[in-house]
Design goal:
The chain is α+β, with helices and mostly antiparallel strands and about 350 residues long. The chain is about 25% helix and about 35% strand. It has five helices and 23 strands. A hairpin with a 4-residue loop joins strand 12 and strand 13. It is elongated, with a radius of gyration of 51 Å.
Length: about 350
């Protein structure tokens, strides 16, 4: 009994010690959790305040315009910055020429903003503003029309082809302010018909308001509607109306001897094989052969108001209007007559 009585108090003291340690650990854990929660809450509050500050700054700061289209020749603060307030009308400088553009980079924009104490800083070195000047462009067709009218006054009319030299350099010079009309007037036109060349001075928008003056030169080509074959033909084929079509070409580019009129071609025969679409020259065609050597013909005798016919044989080939020798098959007499139709020879 004494042994049991001495053991029990020591066991109870150990249990109490363990319980005290557990309570201390729980207190430290609670304090740690409170500290962590406070830290996270502080981070959330800070992030919220940063967002609010950024939004407030974005709402009050000056914004940059990336692309600016202007009409006049004066560039102002309000052209490149939004919300510039009373500083919007401050003049910065000149805008680009009509039809041109210029770029203000981040460094230049920063210098402009600081010079007038404007609340703006670039977000990156890539910030920039592209400024484009509106313009009226004079079209090439407008220049051609003005030249046609002036040439008509000199008696040069019809289907003409005007080729202006160096149009890639001329057109950029004919750019007017947006408020002007893209019209052209001509002065000092000189035309040399022997060479087909011209010189002139273009004035835009008018002689009374010569904002742009440019000297030009070039060539003038007369154009014609040329009859050509629409199908290939073999040598000896007769050219009919259905075999022909028209193409619009420069007359100066045609080879010598080119046939320009339908009447010179229709009813003729191909002297050699001919391709479609090519100009026909006088050496490409011939009168159709109406009579073949050895072929039968009808011989017509005309004279004194009397007309007789007989059968005969051709001793030569013959075309319309050509004199050939034939033989009368009834009398076996050799005669000379004119080919007047297909398989027909007339003797007068």
């Amino acid at each position: 009994m004494r042994q049991y009585a001495s053991i029990k108090p020591s066991v109870r003291r150990g249990e109490l010690r363990i319980r005290e340690l557990n309570l201390q650990d729980r207190g430290l854990l609670t304090l740690g959790m409170i500290a962590i929660k406070s830290f996270l809450f502080s981070i959330l509050i800070g992030a919220f305040m940063m967002v609010v500050c950024v939004q407030i700054r974005a709402a009050t700061a000056t914004n940059l315009k990336n692309i600016v289209i202007v009409q006049d020749d004066i560039l102002r603060i309000g052209d490149i910055f939004e919300q510039a307030g009373g500083q919007a009308d401050i003049v910065i400088g000149r805008t680009p020429l009509p039809g041109k553009e210029m770029i203000l980079d981040a460094r230049t924009l920063m210098r402009i903003a600081r010079s007038i104490n404007l609340s703006w800083t670039p977000e990156s070195a890539l910030d920039r503003v592209v400024i484009k000047r509106e313009a009226t462009l004079v079209e090439l067709s407008t220049i051609h029309d003005a030249l046609f009218k002036e040439l008509a006054k000199k008696g040069l009319e019809g289907n003409l082809d005007i080729v202006i030299q160096n149009t890639q350099n001329i057109l950029p010079q004919m750019i007017l302010p947006r408020s002007e009309m893209g019209t052209i007037e001509i002065k000092n036109l000189r035309y040399r018909p022997e060479k087909g060349l011209f010189e002139a001075t273009l004035v835009s928008p008018s002689l009374e308001n010569p904002l742009k003056t440019v000297s030009v030169n070039g060539a003038i080509y007369k154009r014609v509607m040329l009859p050509v074959l629409n199908t290939s033909l073999k040598a000896g084929d007769i050219i009919g109306a259905s075999d022909l079509t028209y193409v619009d070409v420069r007359q100066r580019d045609l080879p010598k001897g080119t046939l320009l009129h339908l009447a010179d071609i229709q009813g003729m025969s191909a002297y050699k094989p001919l391709d479609a679409g090519k100009p026909l020259r006088n050496t490409d065609i011939a009168l159709p052969q109406l009579v073949s050597r050895g072929g039968f013909v009808t011989i017509l005798y005309k004279g004194g108001g009397v007309s007789l016919s007989a059968k005969g044989k051709a001793l030569q080939n013959g075309t319309r209007g050509e004199l050939i020798r034939v033989v009368n098959l009834s009398s076996n007499k050799h005669l000379q007559g004119m080919v007047t139709a297909d398989h027909q020879v007339s003797i007068y």
